[in-house]
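#onboarding

Welcome to the new folks! Below is a worked example of what a typical request in this channel looks like: someone posts a single protein sequence, and someone else replies with the predicted structure as tokens. Don't worry about understanding the tokens yet, we'll cover that in week two.

Example request:
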Amino acid sequence: MEMKTDMTILLIGILISIFIGVIFGIDPSQEYPFLSWDLESKLIDSGLVHNATVQNILFKLEHSRLPHIVESLLSRLKLILDQDDLESIRKPDLFRPLLPFSFSRLGPLLLTILMNYMKVFIDTDFLRTYLLLVGPPGSGKTYFLIHLLQAFTIFRPDVTITIIDPKNGLSTLAPFINAVPIDLASVSFDLTPPPSISREKYVLEFMSTLAGDTGLIYGLDLLNKAARICLEKRDRYASQTGEACEICFKDLLYELDRMQFKNFRLQGYLDATKTGIGLIVDNSNLFACRQSLHPSWLFSRNNILNARGLTNSFQSKSFLNLLLYWLYQNARHLPETNQIHHLIVIDDGNRFLESNRSADGNISPLAHMLATLRSTGTAVILVSHLPAQIDPPLVSLCRNMIVTGNIHGNENLSVIRNFMSLSDPQTAAITRFQNREMLAFIADHPWRRPIHGWTPPVPDLPITSSLNNDLSYRIKPWHPLDQLPSVSVTPPSNPPAQAQPKDPTPIISDKYDRLVFDCITHRFVTSSERIPNFASVREFQAALKTALSANLLTQISVGRVKYLVPTKAAYEKFNIHSPYLRSVSLEHSFLVDLAAYFIQRGSKYQVQSEVPHGSKGSTIDLVATDSAGIRFAIEVTLSTSNLLSNAARLQTAGFDKVIWLCRDYTTATAVKSFFQNSAVLPPDFTARFSFLNFAHLRQGNWEKLL
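Example response:
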């Protein structure tokens, strides 16, 4: 009996709810039961339900009990709907229905702002399947790209960013994404293989790609022959000299120039191949070196490659293919992943990726490489204003597309229409887009329609120095592999200035003169080490007191050790050129030279002092480079003043390590504490800091402390 009673009560409740819905027009399943079903449907279909004003009215309706207030609020809602209907008649949005609110919060990356002002967020890994960013000049592509890159820097700092910038318009972005700007006109690239690939296999497999770049598939045998000769010469050169070296495109051209055939057809193939490789090599040093900027170093940090100096399509394609080929060979044995680890941005993609299919329809090797890279965590953003000119297989690899501004041209519109499955009226509407108006299609997004909105607002970047880093120290100049270097001892670059006497026989008339002259000729001897040159300690102290009072010497304390430093007057007294003529602080200049002396006592490091940096005459105290090409910036620090300004100069300089070399332990501790308590500099930059004092240099154990 109890079960029958419960069922009866349930049926009665259902009948009552249906009766109320029929009488009052209320559906129990409504999200807003205080609205009529018709009014709620219109708000949801129009997308106005997410409007801030509408949300405020709905909140008041839910909590209002007075009939006249409810009636007034409902009238306002109907007025807003009428205005929206009128606006849609005047300016119809052919891309409705708009994306629902439940699909608008899928990650941290702001994709767009819809026409109803609702913001749409997506997961950054949605872009792992490549993005094609399309729009005419001035439509907002670059600003949207800046927005994306800054978002990746904030939300995905683990992702390495490589930007190929042929217009040099993104170099000012470097400080804001912690990138190193590199001018391709000052660096070179060779055929260095990844660690797990043999040199012979790496070089010979690349020859087919190189032949495809130049349209010389019939010259592939000649390229392979030249490559084998270069590999043999390279091995012989390395064994005879013991020097590390690689082969490059210029080596191929050098060997092709030495070939000659009696057969007319083979000679024709040879001439065509030399012409093609010659266009790639051109007159620049981009592909001419004995050892280049190593790709593993390049892809281990964010960088912006200024490719403005690439003069022809052969160079542009070959450069991109060489970079991607190295990544492809390095990633062939990596596991598949759904997360982005490396983001490559190719601005003005038409220059690098224009259609290059052969007559028989074969797909370019670049498409195969990109397909493999996509599965191993490398994402690519292709930026173009003429999508129809990009190789169709490369377009098909991109599963995401964003269009900004109005696009014209039947071929370009056809690419967009086929990609997003647009109707003819929707395709025609793209030609009327305003600047910053955008249409996005994201393949992994649950909303399977194009998303119509506006690009997120991006403030103008402050004007900063866009100077590119000088990485020429990593490049070995090209010379033929037949040419063995002459045996000679190369002095360290820019050693500390040593005193050169104008007069070989200076006049030394007194004991304090002898002390001063000894300090000039043996600058880096400590004060206590000079005592044995005198008959007694008292005699040394008397000579020192006289020299100090005559302003010929100054005493500098470095920890527990003291050094006697000659002044400008001392050098003038003995007619000797002073190494400190251009220096403001004698103490700082001496310590810079002292540090250089200690560091280059071993043969491992090459040291440069007072290295120019920036456009305002500023310098870096010391730059030390080891045999592996690892570069240290060394700043001699006497106090905690000006630390932030000195650090800011080094932030974009691309040094592997920044060493703050302090006078003593107390100063080193204070400098370290200063940076640890400062939140101005990014943590990934301060992680490269090391804090040493001169005692570490004297003891020779400073490398263990880095």
